């Protein structure tokens, strides 16, 4: 197994792994394209993408991460957006090797922690993260997306809002 930073040549194989993750999670699989994987993910200047490949060059896992800052700890870190290993290679050290490579890449950029999330039902991920030394914290995640995001982004700044606008909670 070899673990390395993703390259443009990985876009099609990486896309297939991302579609598999999305399918497993019950997320849409038709929105992401190999071209978007290359231009919006691999080539994005702040995104770190690490892949694991078998000896024959077949991609067997990947992770994506983005910079974050944790004010409670006063330090930079990485938010791991995706972590996926093909089923046949799970529990063989692939995910740990990928996260170790992410940690090294992040550390070189000033990061001092990884922020990992998993669905409540993904108890295997919870156990894996604990074996890494992670401490679990119950949170509820929310996403403002699609038209709701556009509506929020289109709201005028407070100085130009109507006086009768709905108060914030």
UniProtKB/TrEMBL annotation:
State the InterPro entries in the record.
Acyl_CoA_acyltransferase, Bact_Acetyltransf, GNAT_dom
- Signal peptide positions are none
Keywords from the UniProt entry: Acyltransferase, Ribonucleoprotein, Ribosomal protein, Transferase
Please give the Gene3D superfamilies that the UniProt record associates with this protein.
3.40.630.30
Please indicate if the UniProt record lists rRNA-binding as a keyword.
Answer: no
Q: Which GO terms of the molecular function aspect are on file? A: acyltransferase activity, transferring groups other than amino-acyl groups
Residue spans making up a coiled coil are: none
Q: Does the keyword tRNA processing apply?
A: no
Tell me which residues make up the N-acetyltransferase domain.
1-155
Family annotation (Pfam families): Acetyltransf_1 (PF00583)
Per the record, its GO cellular-component terms are: ribosome
Q: Which CDD domains match?
A: NAT_SF (cd04301)
- Official protein name in the record: Ribosomal protein S18 acetylase RimI-like enzyme
């Amino acid at each position: 197994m070899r673990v390395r930073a993703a390259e443009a040549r990985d876009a099609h194989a990486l896309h297939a792994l991302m579609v598999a993750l999305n399918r497993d999670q019950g997320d849409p699989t038709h929105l992401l394209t190999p071209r978007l994987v290359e231009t919006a993910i691999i080539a994005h200047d702040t995104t770190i993408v690490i892949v694991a490949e078998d000896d024959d060059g077949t991609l067997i896992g990947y992770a994506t991460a983005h910079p974050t800052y944790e004010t409670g700890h006063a330090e930079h870190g990485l938010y791991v957006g995706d972590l996926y290993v093909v089923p046949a290679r799970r529990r063989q050290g692939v995910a740990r090797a990928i996260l170790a490579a992410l940690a090294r890449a992040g550390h070189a950029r000033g990061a001092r922690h990884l922020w990992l999330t998993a669905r409540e039902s993904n108890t295997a991920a919870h156990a894996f993260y604990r074996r890494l030394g992670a401490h679990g914290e119950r949170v509820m995640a929310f996403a403002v997306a699609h038209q709701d995001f556009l509506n929020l982004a289109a709201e005028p700044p407070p100085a130009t809002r109507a006086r009768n606008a709905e108060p914030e909670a």
